[in-house]
Amino acid sequence: MPELPEVEHAARTLRRLALGRRIVAVALDARAPRLFRPDGPAAFRRAVLGARLVAVERHGKQLLLTLEAGEAPGRLVGVNAHLGMTGRWTGGPAAPPPTHARASLSLDDGTRLHYDDPRMFGRLRLVPGADFAALPGLAALGPDPVRHGLDAAGLQAGLARTRRPVKVALLDQSLLAGVGNIHAAEACWRARLDPRRRADRLTGAEAAALARGLRATFRFALAKLDGGEVVYIEAGGENPFHVYDRAGARCRHPGCPGTVRRIVQAQRSTYFCPRCQR
DNA sequence: ACCCGTGTTCGCTG
DNA sequence: TCAGCGAACACGGG
Questions:
Q1: Which residue is nearest to nucleotide C5 (CA to C1')?
Q2: What is the per-residue pLDDT across A110-154, written as a single tens digit (0 to 9) for each?
Q3: Are A199 and A166 in contact (CB under 8 A)?
Q4: Does the CB of A34 fall within 7 Å of any strand C atom?
Q5: Shared domain check, A169 and A131
Q6: Does residue A263 share a domain with residue A213?
Q7: Among A174-178, A205-209, A212-216, A225-229, the least confident range
Q8: Is A125 in the same domain as A215?
Q9: Which residue numbers of A are catalytic?
Q10: How many angstroms is C1' of C12 away from CA of A88?
Q11: Same domain, A186 and A64
């Protein structure tokens, strides 16, 4: 499920259910050791059992959980959580584990917190001392367009460093942290920008339109999440997006007679309207 | 059976 | 040296 808006939703869920709470029991799926790389599930259990969740932050698609160790108040342990392709956090009072619960945490107020992830592309990585800045992967992230803001000049400067197609460049987390395959396509559509255009050849006006498109598609998704709606593609769900997964449909820009097309870029589907996206 | 998938990482190539 | 590319990871749904 995760691009920036869904990860922000996960952060809010974790704060609402677990901030300030102590973890009193930990159940881990023995078939999912890869989620706990590099230290392994046993080390994860040791580190978080008895600890209290004191902060939940987000940078792009990365969740940064800070816990205070139970037996030594003041000693911090961090968890860098990533949802991969199919991860999500659920829970509630006595909530039963979902089908693919890989980690289930019992909290000191009776809340059950579950990390659900069928494909196991996610990660729950221990960070000693909660020193997230020391993680190379996190240090390499670009600015978070929601938390840090997004200016057109900065975006254009970043895009100027690569000759790849603009939609492929947007997926590079060192350019901006949090843009994924859906919102990259949505932002290009909103900017009426052809996703195949070379990133280093955008005009200032085009970069500005793209920055507005990114802001708008994230705001759109976050508003839906605030309203309790599901804003990712799921079985039986209605597609809330404008071009993503709409191949063959009429372009939703008013008055545009174009038809949405699917192409493949960097092994990922791209959806766009060849008529109005130039 | 076959293809597709909201993400990342690794190894190869030029 | 490094940007760019393709495979790999793993499982469920259409």
A1: A266
A2: 999 999 999 999 999 999 999 999 998 999 999 999 999 999 999
A3: yes
A4: yes
A5: no
A6: yes
A7: A225-229
A8: no
A9: 2-3, 61, 268
A10: 16
A11: no
